[in-house]
């Protein structure tokens, strides 16, 4: 097979073969390994290259056709129709059940919220800063309720981070945060419940929230960025540790 058509990312354990092969083919399309208009190798060639059955290849190609990346020509097979998926960005429910995938989603959240904190410090209004502080206070109140207050703690935690994204004045920051928050809510809740069972509490997170709020109130974007990074790194470690201890997510 022409070397340009070989898979460029390895198959990853922990997902179905169809999922893995779909990701490999999608990677080749969106990263320009296969240019728009180019015919894909035959099903047999792809199956040999990836060491899977032709049925798996057929299913993966079908998925990418549904996304608008691939199309078919009568008697000639599939070709690259676009390098931009018709479907929007999405996180599959099962991804949040995998510790490896969950860690990657949390890293994505860091990339979003660290800069959001800096922008909020630069151009957040007085009302927006007051809302951030109010959300930090609400988290403190919810965090004292033990296991019964965990759900409220998660809600107010997300409210705090949402208020910061809202303070940017950029609807896309807020929209992406809302999507990520909805995707992560159940995992965060499970992690907090496990932490409560182990005797941990959320006072550290509350103090970190107030530190971020103070940096934003001082209109110090560098400090706000630094404190948000520290908070999210610690939150990442707390959540992954809690879920790993509980055995509640796959590797």
Task: Explain what you see.
The N terminus is likely disordered. Helix 1 packs across helix 3, helix 5 packs antiparallel against helix 6 and helix 8 packs antiparallel against helix 9. With 251 residues, this protein is mainly alpha-helical. The protein is built from 9 helices and 2 strands, in the order H-H-H-E-E-H-H-H-H-H-H. Strands 1-2 form a two-stranded antiparallel sheet.
What are its keywords?
disordered N terminus; 9 helices; mainly alpha; 251 residues; 65% helix; single chain
Task: Produce a short descriptive summary.
The protein has 251 residues and is mainly α. The chain contains nine helices and two strands. The protein has a two-stranded antiparallel sheet with strand order 1-2.
Sheet-strand content, in percent, reads under 5%
- The proportion of residues forming helix, as a percent range, comes to 55-70%
Taking the sheet with the most strands, its summary is: 2 strands, antiparallel
Mean pLDDT rating: 87
Order of the strands making up the biggest sheet: 1-2
Shape: elongated
Give the total of beta strands. 2
- Give the topology string: H per helix, E per strand: HHHEEHHHHHH
| Tally of DSSP helical segments | 9
Give Rg in angstroms.
22 Å
Pairing-aware structural class of the strands and helices?
Answer: mainly alpha
Distance between the termini: 34 Å
Q: Runs with pLDDT <50, length 5+?
A: 1-5
SSE arrangement:
Layout: H1 17-30, H2 43-50, H3 54-66, E1 70-73, E2 77-80, H4 99-123, H5 126-142, H6 150-167, H7 171-197, H8 203-217, H9 221-246
Antiparallel strand pairs: 1-2
């Amino acid at each position: 097979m022409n070397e340009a058509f070989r898979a460029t990312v390895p198959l990853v354990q922990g997902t179905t073969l169809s999922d893995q092969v779909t990701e490999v083919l999608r990677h080749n399309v969106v990263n320009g390994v296969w240019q728009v208009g180019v015919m894909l190798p035959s099903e047999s060639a792809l199956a040999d290259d990836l060491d899977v059955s032709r049925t798996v290849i057929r299913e993966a190609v079908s998925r990418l056709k549904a996304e608008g990346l691939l199309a078919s020509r009568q008697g000639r097979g599939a070709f690259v129709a676009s390098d931009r998926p018709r479907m929007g960005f999405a996180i599959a429910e099962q991804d949040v059940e995998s510790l490896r995938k969950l860690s990657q989603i949390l890293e994505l959240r860091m990339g979003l919220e660290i800069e959001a904190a800096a922008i909020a410090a630069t151009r957040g209004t007085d009302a927006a800063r007051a809302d951030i502080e109010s959300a930090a206070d609400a988290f403190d109140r919810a965090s004292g309720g033990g296991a019964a207050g965990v759900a409220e703690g998660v809600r107010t935690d997300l409210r705090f981070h949402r208020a910061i994204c809202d303070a940017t004045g950029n609807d896309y920051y807020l929209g992406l945060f809302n999507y990520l928050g909805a995707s992560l809510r159940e995992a965060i809740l499970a992690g907090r419940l496990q932490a409560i069972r182990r005797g941990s509490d959320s006072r550290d997170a509350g103090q970190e929230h107030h530190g971020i709020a103070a940096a934003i109130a001082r209109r110090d974007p560098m400090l706000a960025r630094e404190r948000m990074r520290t908070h999210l790194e610690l939150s990442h470690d707390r959540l992954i540790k809690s879920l790993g201890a509980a055995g509640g997510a796959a590797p």
